Structures are given as structure tokens and as C-alpha cells.
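step 4 of 6: structure.
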Amino acid sequence: MQVLKFGGSSVANAANISKCIAIISKAAEQDTTIVVISALGGITDSLLHCATAASAGDERFSESLKNIEQRHLDTVRELIPVTGQSSILSMVKKTCNELEDIFKGIFLLRELSARTTDCVLSFGELLSSRIVSAGLAAREVPNIWKDSRDLIVSDSRFGHALVDFPATQKKIGAYFQNPISPLCIVPGFIASDALGITTTLGRGGSDYTAAIYGNALNVKRIEIWTDVSGMMTADPRLVSNARAIPDISYQEAMELSHFGAKVLYPPTLQPVMNKGIPVWIKNTFMPDDPGTLIEKVSSKTGSSIRGISSIHRIALLSLEGSGMIGIPGFSKRLFEALSRQQINVILITQASSEHSICVGVDSSQAALAKVSIDDMFGPEIHAGTVMPLIVEEELAIVALVGDNMKSHPGISGKLFGVLGRNGINVRAIAQGSSERNISAVISTKDVKKAVNVLHEEFFEATYKQLNLFITGTGNVGRRLLQQLEQQRHFLLDQLRLQVRVTGLANSRRMLIQEEGIDLSRWSDELEKGDPMQLRDFIKIIHSKNLRNSVFVDVTANSEVAMGYEQLLLKSISVVACNKIASSSPYSYYRRLKDLSKEFNAAYYFETNVGAGLPVIGTLNDLLRSGDKIRKIEAVLSGTLNFVFNHYDGKTKFAQIVKQAQEEGYTEPDPRLDLSGTDVMRKIMILAREAGHAVEMEDISNQVFLPASCMEGSVEDFYLAMEKEEAHFKQLFEAASAAGKKLKFVAGYENGKAAVGLQHVGPAHDFFHLYGKDNIVLFYTDRYPEQPLVIKGAGAGAEVTASGVFADIIRAANA
Ligand code: ADP
Ligand code: ASP
Ligand code: MG
């Protein structure tokens, strides 16, 4: 014997029911079969809605009822050939008339008891199961319909009736001893009490009906046919990468369903687990998919975690007070207060200090719990030894479930690590003594993100999604986007990183696409975006709350730089090629570094010094390994190096600067380079990274640019330089007369930094520095005489973009 159960979506309409019929006819050829049917998808909700409207005196209930009737009539007309329709159509009409009478009664009395609600809801399953039965008959599959209320006996807790198993067993046993037909169709969800009054087994309870029949008849197997291909590693509506679990133990499946996996009504497995009846979860719409087998022991292979589930609408109740310490009986009284009101406790935690107890309950019961608990502890609250109950709402539980967790240390560490890195605050935790479940209470707004990052960590360990929010589509931004597109497959295959540009903005427009912007046409897409407002852009990043988010600043804009604080505070990493933040007043630089540490978010700006050269990274590696920086000497301006390498006293100085700008080696305002300000910023950043609280005013700068060049616009600047050509020529000639070259050098020693133009002779490391190259010499305890040298192109969009790219990857792995 076997039991098959079909859920609401499986019987939602005639087309779906036809699929069920195909499955049922095939199964019935194999064995005696009982088929449990749910109401047509959505009908239970509609009935409830209708009844509530009627009880509130809302006449529209009758229109809603018409829709319910119509849906059933349509289903029959589509499912069954005209010649066979009449008796089933009149059954639907007659049943709906009865229902109308009941609604009228509710409407007149303005009263809806739990008992009447159950009576109303039972019509959903009564109608659907009869339609399926008739549909089978019409396809010449002989079957009999039987009302579950005649066979399943429950108590009178309407809405959530408890089954009287011995009485039920007797009735089912007797009925099926000599079955009239080897195929019997029954309604799910409903039962009747000792007086024969209709009850229901709780929302989603048709699964339970299947288990009740299965248990009573000790069947060979139970199949739950639904709209997904099994019990999945996470709720597929939350996690698109969730996948079906091939096999799972009763305990694990129970734990997952208790913690929110709606695919199985939580009490379902109780009646069948002792008998070891295997339960299959199968997909009506993909019947050939293997589905999930729930049995005594699950396979020991694969992940130590079997699945992740979540329950929304949790309230956390905390009872605190010095009066609780060391005094026995407090928890007993707390739970007594809850049980008096029949409040179900979902999670309990108590700190070892016993200073507080924390329990998680369904939000809908929080107010009742508060009254009951405050009443129970009235005397202590009055005496001030216990505080009135603290209720926190808008919380949720995420739970990791797996039998094999106990043999795998470090799972909770991973859980907290992942949540922490993604800025998800954990309010409370609980781990059952069976070590089959670790639960964390978090804010409801973080659930989707939490379940996704946990899924990524435990089930897709080798595959991580990175969400980039890029501001700036100038020279560097464009190259970065190009490089990201070009390397997409490499990152996926080699680093298991799926990098998405989820947000893109420039000074005019901003665009957010959660599924990732198509990088081959970002420019057109961005044009269609909204007008750029940095505040809104950051607000969206916050509200999207996506995992592994990285904000990438490839602008030179100070407003953007001032936004980092808001991002780091929410654990969003920041990668900047913009130097403004790290060269702003020391206090802001420090604050960003501290936030980065506190909120587990990377803050990288390698390209601030030497473009793509690994300068800051190397400096940090030296420091981390215990080395000390004694002195830094460097040529840090690709622009100035380019200019002085090309200037020969013949071509005009202004023209060389123009060329540098046109080739993309200068800041948008080249005066920042020519005045030495940019080099000052860079040496300051290195000094800061080396641990010194240096400010711009602390750095001496021997400016070589005449003051007249610093006034007015960029165009004025070029004109002024032309006028000062003699000055530049004189600088050049003084150096070349001595056989030396001009280099704009930055130095740092003993906490002091200086920049300025120097004459460099052929023996010096800086002499052979060509093009737009940079060079940095680190003199350290470990490199005292021969410095550690980093040299190479220090400007240019391509190398800068690649440095930003490297920072992004580092942030992903931080
Ligand atoms: P039925 O109407 O067939 O009883 P339900 O809607 O009650 O179906 O349950 C199936 C739904 O449960 C799926 O469509 C899915 O959205 C949801 N679900 C939540 N968590 C899980 C999970 N871990 N595995 C599978 N489905 C899940
Ligand atoms: N129809 C009922 C409900 O929607 C029972 C079920 O579908 O399992 O809750
Ligand atoms: Mg269900």
C-alpha cells in the first residue's frame, strides 16, 4: 500500500490536475493507493478571507464566494468532457450553496468562531478531492472517494486539532480492511472530533493527513507531490542556487520544517518515523526528477550541513534582573507563564551568568506573552529585582541543520564569521544538545542576505558572488569595466568568484541592476538610469543589503570620498582610487581605518600611490611581518616624471604637460601634479600607513611652479606656463649642465616628510627612471642598506584600473 499527497499548486487548475492524474494512474497500477488532496492553490486563503469579511459585515464576501465557485466550475469544465460533467458540476454548485448559507449566518451574526472557521475551510479540500476523483473516473481510472472526517478522529482544538491516533487507527484499519477499490481519494487537512464536528489539522496540514493514513496502514511509502523537486538546501524563493537534497533523515527534515521549510508541514514525520516509513518529496511538474527521500538515516556524504531554513516574524523576549542570579525556579515560572497562554517557544538561550533568559516566540503572541510574564513576575518587578519583560520585534531565525554537524567542529565559527563579514548582527543564538541545529536570531531585513551568504558558505563554498557598486566612468572606470568583463570567466573558473556590477554611476546618472549590469553595453544602460544623487545611490546600496558588497570609487570627487563612512558602517567594503579620503585630515583617514576593522569591511586604496604598483600592499606586508620602516625615498608622480623626462628645453614645457594630460597621466586638474600636491598626498599616505599621524601641513614642499601658474582656470594655467618658459628652461639647464636629471622626489624619515625637485646624478637609483615610471625605495630594519625597490609605470588608466581590480579581489577574499 502507498499514500500519495498532492498539494495546492499541484491541483491549482485543470492542467495541473491532469498531471496529477497521470501520476496517480501510473502509481495505482503498482499498488493499492490512497491519494490525499489539498484544496486548489489559494482557496483556503480565499475561504478564510471571505469568512472574515462576512463576520466584519462586509457584503463583498458574496462576490468572493462567486469567484471561488467559478474557479471550481471552470476547473471541472476544463478537466472533464461535457458528457461526464453534470453530476460533478451540480456537486460544486450544491456545495457552494451550502457555503453561502454558512457565510450568510456569519454575516448576520457578525461572529466567526474557530469551529465555524474550520467548517468553512473544510470546503476547500472537500471540493478539490471530489473533482480529482471525478477527473480520474472520467479517464477511466476507477476509484472511490472517501471523506477523511469519517476516518480521522481529533480533539476539538479547532484550527489545530490533535489527532486521536488509537481511534483513528481503528477507523482507518476497518475501512481499508476490505477496500472497495484499490484507489481511494481522500481530502487532506480535515478531520472530525468525537461528536462528529469538522476540525482542521493546521495550515498546510494535508501533508499530515498523508502521514496519518500511512501510519495507520503501515504503508510501504508516502509520496508528497508538490511544486519543487524535493526538500531543498534552502527556501528556493530566497536562494536561487538552492538545490534538492537527495536524501535526508527524519530528524533533519523535521528540524528544517520546524524552522520554516514550508515544503513539509512540521508534525508530518512524527507518525511515520517510528515505523520507518520512507517519505518521498516529488515534483508534480517534473515527475522524473529524483526528489528527496526522507528516511531513518541520511547518507553521511556531502556537506555536514543538510539545509538552511528561516522563520520570519519572531519576537525575542528577554527577562533580566539581578534578582534572578542563583535563585532556582525562575525559568520554570517563565515557561509556566508562557504555557498558560499556550504560547509556543521556538528558541531559548540563557547566559551562564543567569542574569537573563531570552526566548523566541511567534510575533503574534508577543503581546500576550508580555502581559502573562509581567504578571507572573509582578512582585519582583515591583521590588525592582527583575525588569519588566523586554520585547524585541521584527526579528527572524536562521537555522543550520544537519545530523553530521556534531562531528564537524567550527561550524558556528563559520556561521558567525560569514554573518559578521556581511554586517549582519546576531541578537541571540541557540544550539540544541543534539547538535543538529544551530540557530541565530537576526533582524528580519537581513534574512534574505543571511540565508544566501550561509548557503554560499556551506553549499557553494567554491563559488562566491561579489556585488560591485562602481562610481566613476572616466578613463580608469572604463578600463576597469572592460577588464572586469574580459576576466569574468577567469574569475569564475579560477577563483570561483562571480563578480557582478550591481550598481554603476557617474556624475550624471546612476543605475542599479540586481542581476548585474551587462558590461558589454554598460554605457547605453547607464544612460537610461536615474539622475545621479550620491545620497540615493548609497541609500539603495544599504536597502539592497546584498552580500559581499564592494563600493568602488574611481572618481576624484570629494563628496564621494565623504560617503565611505556610511558604507563601512554597514560592512560594505570600499576600494578607492580616489585619494581624497586617505589624504584628508588624519582624523577622517583614521576613522575609516577603524570602521573597516570594527565592521569587518575592507578599505583598500592601493592605487593612491604608484597606480598599479604594489606599494601600499608591500608596505603593509613588511609591517605585518614585524619589519620597521626607517626611510622612504620615492618618485611618486608619473606625471612629473613624464614631464621632466620629456622636457629638453626645446619643446615648450607647457606642451609637454599638455601631452601628459592628453595621454591620461595627470589628475583632471594637472596643477595638483605640477604643484607637488599630489606627491605630498602620496608620501603622506605612505607615512600614515607606516603608522604616523602626518598632516599635509607637516610636509615641506619646495615648489618649482611659479605662483602665477596657480591662478585661474586650467586654461589660464597653460597660458601662464608658456609665459614662464624661461623659468623652466633655466631649471633644466642648471641640472643638465651638471650632468644630472630633474626628478621630483619625495622623502620620509623619522616621521618627517618632504617633497621637491632635485638634481639626480647617474649613480642614483632614480637616474634611470623613464617615461611615467614611479619608484619607491623602502629602507627598513630588514633592508637597511640596499632598499627594497618597487619600480614601474606609476600612472595610466590601464595600470590604475588593474590596481583597482586587484584591490577588489583582495576585498572579496578579506
Ligand atoms: P504544497 O501546496 O504542495 O503543499 P507548499 O507551498 O506548502 O506546497 O510547499 C512548497 C513550497 O515550500 C515551495 O514552493 C517552496 O517555495 C517552499 N519552501 C520553503 N523552504 C523550502 C525548502 N527548504 N525546500 C523546498 N521548498 C521549500
Ligand atoms: N489547504 C490547506 C492550507 O492551505 C492545507 C494544505 O494545503 O496542506 O493550509
Ligand atoms: Mg504544503
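step 5 of 6: annotate
 - The first strand starts at residue 2 and ends at 6.
 - The CA atoms of residues 526 and 708 lie 41 Å apart.
step 6 of 6: archive
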